Amino acid sequence: MAISKSNIILGIDPGTVVMGYAIIEVNGNNINILTMDVLKLASVKDIYERLEMIHSKVNALITQYKPQTFAIEAPFFGKNVQSMLKLGRAQGVAIAAAMQHGIDVTEYSPKKVKQSVTGNGNANKEQVMKMLQQILNFKDNPKHFDATDALAVAVCHHFQQRSPLASSTTKLKGWEAFIAQNPERVKKK
Q1: How far apart are CA 141 and CA 45, in angstroms?
Q2: Is 104 a catalytic residue?
Q3: Which of 13, 37, 107, 149 is catalytic?
Q4: Considering the chain, what percentage of its residues have pLDDT values greater than 90?
Q5: From 25, 46, 49, 73, active-site residue
């Protein structure tokens, strides 16, 4: 009988006002929530201070829980360009913290996360939370959907790792891989 090693996954729902985070431990078919909460940033007016707080929080979570993998929700394309830029910065800072620790990073679209957890890519936040409560057998309703959104990202990552179609996600193994996959994001002087 083989001994299965547990896998710890950090899921992030990025934001510059509220960032959701969740860490799950997967051991065989058992998924345990190690932590799930939000980092509230609204009271801090300076955007750069908020970004530093995001970086520090992700670093602290990685140091405390030592996840093997990091999953983050990709920004959705909206009409407000300024909001997209701010969200992209928050996402980038969280990704940089994970990469700094040498953790594999995987990005999922909001639709992919919802589809993976509920079977419906157009599910609303409450439907996602209710399905997570059933899958993970927890009763409490978190105060912020950002926390359950982050939990959904982590659970989605677990489901995708087990899937034979796992190669359809975007995995980054370092800055070189990121640059190779995203040459249009490199500024040339």
Answers
A1: 29
A2: no
A3: 13
A4: 68
A5: 73
How far does the chain reach from its first CA to its final CA, in angstroms? 58
Cβ-count burial of 138 within 10 angstroms (0-12 exposed, 13-18 middle, 19+ buried)? middle
Q: Of 37, 107, 146, 149, which is the active-site residue?
A: 146
* 146 catalytic per annotation: yes
**Residue 2 pLDDT grade (very low, low, confident, very high; cuts 50, 70, 90):** very low
- Chain segment 125-143, per-residue pLDDT in tens: 999 999 999 999 988 888 8
pTM value surpassing 0.70: yes
Angle between helices 81-100 and 47-65 (to 10 degrees): 30
Q: Is 13 a catalytic residue?
A: yes
Is 94 in contact with 100 (CB distance < 8 Å)? Answer: no
**Which ranges constitute the DSSP H helices of 24-108?**
47-65, 81-100
